[in-house]
Protein 1
Amino acid sequence: MDSSQSDVEDNAEHLRQEIGSLHSSIKDKSTLDKAASNEMVLKSLLIKATRYLAAHPFSKDIYESGLFGSSLLPLPQPASHSLANVLYLQAQLLRHSPEGPVASGCIAKLEEAVNAGVLANPNATTKRKPQLKREKELREMKIAAGIVNVEEEERLEKEAREVKEERSAHHKRRKVRKLESKIISLASLEADVSDLMSTYTTPQLCGSCTTVPSRVDWSVVPNILQPSAEEEGGGGIKDSERAGRKMSQLESLRVVLDSVILGRSLSIVDFGSGSGNSSLALASLFPSCNFTLVDSKPSCVSILKTRIATSGLSNVTPFLGDVMDYKKPFDVGIAIHLCGEATDLAMKSCIANRASFVLVPCCVGKIHKVIQSQIDANVETPDYPRSSWLKSKLSISDYLSLTRVADFSDGRGEGSHSVVAEKSKVLIDVDRARRGEEEGYTMQVGKLEPKTCSVKNDIIVGKAPITLDAVT
Ligand SMILES: C[S@@+](CC[C@H](N)C(=O)[O-])C[C@H]1O[C@@H](n2cnc3c(N)ncnc32)[C@H](O)[C@@H]1O
């Protein structure tokens, strides 16, 4: 036996003796109760036992003492942070021998401490994080000790989720039914709002084009600018199916943009460009136009800079900021999947600049916050509905329900509520188009082709009114 081994043995022997006396002192319940009521004493007993356990994790003595698992040892209330952490330490040690009454008892104690919220260090600056960490560890311990039946727990969780989903679907269906009757009762909208679409020409898209130059010639677009860019940190879409869908969207967008640009050298702003998966390829396909890519996320702008530098593209400038922060004049605005209200802000900015625009809106449900705040503030001229036409038919509160119903991204395509969802979405986009018309724009509303290129495939095109300046 070398000296370090004998030290451990001596130590263990010493601890064994200590635990022996500890043992006899806790044999009768009254001593234990006293110990428990005196947190200091209890803590020192536990520390000793923990040290002993560290030297002999599988000690029979400890198992037999029942000290850790003993229901005789109540956790003082309120338990202190440091005492709870001693319990935690024990439970950690017991992870290596997770079975048996000691482990389960200790875990039960720890759970008590976790539930009492005492494990988080009261002096720590972030209290919730350590508590969460402990909760997670506790669960792992319980699984290891066989206290938790994971399968049963998952089954129960699934059941609870299903009940919740059913409740929320029921809630949505009720709302939709209410709204449906409202939509149908709008006299001038007739029974079916989808008819409204027929008042707009659909933008000419490229779903059925089969040949270059009608289709995008991807061989002229540098790899790093394509949605499928694979370069590390290059911002491309990793999932090849999604990247393919984005490329299909760009087929349509290029044709639409072509019909707006009409061979001119224009300044184009992409609002909410992200890392450029739409507009970098477009910039490469329209080299005589200057593109500004606006995004509020610094990480996106940094990827944009890398992609621009790597490709040597000279007609693109990134701009870090919010849609409304961009103040320079421009000729055409685009906004592809710019969430909720931001699409309307982009359209507003285009109208202020008398610029044409191409919008592929998304997440209409997200507009509800700004609408609700306008309702709460009782603003005199709310931003929604967008057009005077719909303002004369729907109150802002009705419009709020409309956005909620229209945001059925999960349920569209099935059941009667999906029909109403679709109608509501049409109404929201037609309202945007009407607003454009009220500003003198020539409007088109349609869907990207093929429709499967995105669930968010609605497209709104606004061609700017020709100003006298432009004519002279
Ligand atoms: C879904 S991504 C679309 C990216 C890109 N248009 C495309 O088609 O791949 C939306 C982007 O809009 C940006 N965004 C959202 N709200 C914005 C706002 N108010 N101002 C500027 N950027 C915004 C987000 O940071 C995000 O990068």
Note: Residues 272-274, 277-278, 294-297, 300, 322-323, 336-339, 342 surround S-adenosylmethionine (CB under 6 Å).
Protein 2
Amino acid sequence: MRTEPGGGIESGGRTEPGGEAPASSADPLAGRRVLVLISGSIAAVKLPLVVSALAARGAEVRCALTPSAARLVSAVALASLSRHPCALDDDQWSHRAARPLHIELAEWADLVLLAPLSATTLGRWVHGLAEGLVASTLLACEAPVLVAPAMNTAMWEAPPVRRNWQALQAFERVVPVAPGHGLLACDRRGEGRMAEPERLLLALESLALHGWRRDWAGRRLLVSTGPTREFLDPARCLTNPSTGRMGVLLAQAALQRGAVVDLVHGPLQVEPVLLDGLLCHPVVTAAEMERQLSGLQPVADAIVMAAAVADHRRVEARHEKLPKQDLQPALSGGWEPVPDLLAGLVARRPAGQRILGFAAHSGDVLPQARAKFARKGCDLLFANPIDLPGAGFGSAFNQGWLLGPGERIEAIAPAPKLAVAHRLLDALAGLPLRPPAAAPPHRAAADGTRPAAADP
Ligand SMILES: Cc1cc2nc3c(=O)[nH]c(=O)nc-3n(C[C@H](O)[C@H](O)[C@H](O)COP(=O)(O)O)c2cc1C
């Protein structure tokens, strides 16, 4: 009998198409009370999109604006989109309120999104100034706060702002989402552009799933993902339907947990914004992937090999397109297996480096996974079915078996890929990793600075 992770080894239950979604596949943001605090940056105009998406995903949303923010974005729009009155400074002084509004809001929230964060509000918070509704709510709040600054590059690089931003990293419950590089409203290109709305939503989802703890801080993670392509000729290739989403979400989850993440990826089919904050190393063929992985392996504390590597390649590269009538013989001969990239990483690994492999299987996954785990020598193997609805290539969900040391096998029930990513990171972090101090020096991304890329 085929064993499936949805129901455990004994029961073998499975999720049928159109059947009721298992509890673990529910949106992690549904039912969460999200307080959105907005300060006076022009990026405030993007927040209605975030609020609307949160409400559509079933979160309960309330918004509060600083007076400057209220001049840049409509409180009426935010009230309509959140289905709640939008709180302004004047509301703090209403004689109708039985309790101070900043305490009400602070105690109501499960999660707080502070976006955009202006230089002024940052300064107030770091220096403990409870001036205005947003600043006093921040000081009164005990919920985790996702913080996304936005400002002109010179402001962002100004020493007092850098000092305040550094100081904020030490606050408990604060999860920073550093601004990216891009076109700013001042017509300049540079650092200071607020993280895009999709990234803020993903970061909130991570916060809802995992909490605010940065258990990967000071560590460097190497992740491979996506398909590779092996060319028959310049017009045709051997590849697979992997989108790369599972590995990209795993990389984003690790980034939020404090890691510096190198992502070696084949041609991806994910929203480009999901690559923000990662050190990306794009490749096409297995040989290119192997080169990048072996160059980056020495600085990695752990490796996740989630890429779907195409199995065979041409013995000799062909630089001209084959005529159709010559295709048949070219398809049946002249191919060789590509090297086993996971086996290569395991063979070359330095002491204390941990490796999680992925295995995509159809049919009865578990026996195949057991044999592969015994053969590969990695620390963990996540085996996932690719022939079940709601799992594998192209799906927003995944499920499978996690095989670990001492014949440990854990069934991972169907869940959003981000939830599976956090579960896999928990398992990897649970293994004895080399102490952070022993790792080669690198700057953590926690302060929002991009570490120097270690391209081989
Ligand atoms: C059009 C406009 C855009 C602004 N954009 C930013 C910005 O992106 N980041 C920032 O820190 N301040 C920005 N400011 C300045 C702040 O609004 C100002 O410093 C204000 O004191 C912030 O107060 P608050 O933090 O209470 O909202 C902008 C001001 C204006 C008029």
Note: The chain has two domains: 24-210, 220-438.
